[in-house]
Fold this sequence. Notes:
Number of strands: 10
Distance between the termini: 19 Å
Amino acid sequence: MVSAAAGGRASALSAGGVPPLLSTTELSWRVGGAHIVDNVSIDVAPGEFVAVIGPNGAGKTSLLNLLSGVRRPTAGRVLLRGRDITRVAVHKRAHLGIGRSFQSSAVFGSLTVAGNVRLALQAHGGDNLRIWPRPAADRRLDARTAEILEQVGLASRSVTLSSTLSHGDKRKLELALMLACEPALLLLDEPMAGVSAEDVPGLVAVIRSLNTGERGVVMVEHHVDVVLDLADRIAVMHHGALLVCSDPDTVMADATVQSAYLGEAL
């Protein structure tokens, strides 16, 4: 068992000693006397897929909020590629390479699918205030938009109004918007929530395709079959603390995990 008790670290260093893409040290968030996130220390290696599981109230989404900058910790640090970003604002973390999705879909329903992606590209590239874009830049935006939509499986829906998409396709569009910002790390909060059973395999395939090269993924998810399919390691949270973080087989066979979650939905 790879324990992740307070003061310990769930390490992702490779045999070659490659430094982590993301690292937290005794990260905590307390509200009053409640320990929402409690001394979580974990590393995510470049290219690694880490799934975070645990029952409702375990602190999973709160952990993502601390990593993305939505909340500031009461103790501990967050490092991205060795840089301390603990006090860095959300929008600055996005420019540094952190992409975040939320449990509810967040797309511009009044725009087409392609329009959403194009807007994200313009915002990321700093062209969002240009009234008359240069023709060459305009063509590059169109080409990059088409490339991203192909990657997430929405090429055939480019002129579709986003408000009419199925929930599964809206999730794909959210991933496309994150790709427009060229993230080094994706933070996904229950991407399968509300997605119909027939749309789940396609969404899983898209998420898998995004975990390429050195891009890392941290995903909170309740669907254990999806977690086992995608994750290199599984981090198990309980009452805000990190119980264990290891490979899927080790975690699912761990007596502590079985004792904590027997009969509970992960």
